[in-house]
Amino acid sequence: MTDAHSDAADAPAKRLFIKTYGCQMNVYDSERMAEAMGAEGYVLTDRQDDADMVLLNTCHIREKASEKLYSDLGRLKPLKAERPDLKIGVAGCVAQAEGDEIIRRMPVVDLVVGPQAYHRLPAMVRGEAPAVDTEFPAEDKFDHLPPARSGHAATRRAPTAFLTVQEGCDKFCAFCVVPYTRGAEVSRPAARILTEARDLAARGVREITLLGQNVNAWHGAEGWGLGRLIRALAEIDGIERLRYTTSHPNDMADDLIDAHRDEPKLMPYLHLPVQSGSDRVLKAMNRRHTAEDYLRLIDRIRAARPDIVLTSDFIAGFPGETDADHAATLRLIERVGYGMAYSFKYSARPGTPAADRAGVDAGVADTRLQELQELLTRQQKAVQQSMVGRELTVLFEKPGRLPGQMVGKSEYLHAVHVTAPDAKPGELLRVLITASAPNSLSGALIEAA
Ligand code: 5AD
Ligand code: SF4
């Protein structure tokens, strides 16, 4: 979490606890809300019990994610009973989807703010704006949130950062709530993104991950696409690594694929969800491409960057999915060979086109999910094992658990543990990979010649 801090040196700081659920965009939004509240005299605390305000930044993507909010709110009831002046806010996609229904169901909640209304949060907390705001205003919320401040020692930060470049989605996959909770696709202008990236570089950031629900649909003036934006970002001194997530296969433009070949700062890693390997299911999901289209695209990406590590999302048990469809998904996974992938059991989301379709038997969906996960775990292991013996570059992030140990990430986004007592966060050093554990690698520093 970032460093919300108070400019009001005279008033005692109020403490803000933020819990972030769900995707990386929520992590980014939480940071920006922390900064906005910092200007109001709030500092972040990691202890909910002594906070003056608790903000839950929620996720609506699957039923389980949504339900977590209500169990957490239930646990906050006694705290609020003890300290009635404690402010409780709900932000994020559940806030957007359920609005004031949240306060009706859970009266401990003081304010509800949707993802497009975060710039109004300070006024809401001051009591100068309505307590429920789930509008999609015409203005860009990022124009009104305070910019990331540079120059302060207090705002030095981790060597990696997220930067939202695009929000919302016009794809309307039949299972997905994102087009409803995050709204239509909107790209931020290149100039703003470049300014924010320069500020991040000035604050010690070395690696930026560009975020968007459909990040590769990003477009700027004069025909700029994401590939062009990446080339411009790569020119910023201090920025050594760029990544982007999450992409839709149909928006992988030639220029973006070329950037994977030509731009050394663009890391050889791509999250490109396919969801299913069956054309029938892909059609029912409204994905607008076939399994073969996806495989051809993967071939082109690998031709541009042969060592690229690919990752994906899969849904098991989408309505109408047969054993043959599931087998087609397993076949596609075998053909691609993923470095990592998330797989989920289908969860019917209210308001989405697939929600009224007859579901697959829950036991069958569980078995399919397990099969997907077994295969994907095997592939993940194999890709990690293939790193052993290789010399990689690690961007060090923080001390590890053992004395003298540092943890960082390789080009391929694997966590790497290295004994490097003198290495500092933000340093990029060559490392010989010596071993692979279930979720990380370990290695030894290669001494500079
Ligand atoms: N059920 C299961 N998984 C879902 N996802 C999105 N909506 C649903 C749903 N209703 C998954 C998709 C998407 C990822 C972010 O979450 O795989 O890529
Ligand atoms: Fe949801 Fe992604 Fe499909 Fe958009 S492209 S509707 S965010 S799954």
How would you describe this protein?
Its EC number is 2.8.4.3. [4Fe-4S] cluster 2 binds at residues 169, 173, 176. It catalyses: N(6)-dimethylallyladenosine(37) in tRNA + (sulfur carrier)-SH + AH2 + 2 S-adenosyl-L-methionine = 2-methylsulfanyl-N(6)-dimethylallyladenosine(37) in tRNA + (sulfur carrier)-H + 5'-deoxyadenosine + L-methionine + A + S-adenosyl-L-homocysteine + 2 H(+). It is found in: Cytoplasm. It is an enzyme of class 2 (transferase). With 449 residues, the chain is α/β, with parallel strands linked by helices. The chain has three domains: 4-142, Rossmann fold (3-Layer(aba) Sandwich); 144-386, tm_1862 like domain (pyruvate-formate lyase- activating enzyme, Alpha-Beta Horseshoe); 391-445, Beta Barrel (OB fold (Dihydrolipoamide Acetyltransferase, E2P)), CATH 2.40.50.140. It is 33% helix and 22% strand. It contains 14 helices and 19 strands. The strands form five sheets. It has a six-stranded parallel sheet, with helices on both faces. A five-stranded mixed β-barrel has the order 15-16-17-19-18. It has a three-stranded parallel sheet with strand order 7-10-11, sandwiched between helices. The radius of gyration is 22 Å and the shape is globular. Mean pLDDT is 93; it is low at 1-8 and 150-155. Residues 61-62, 175-176, 273, 275, 313, 315, 344, 346-347, 349 line the site of 5'-deoxyadenosine (5AD).
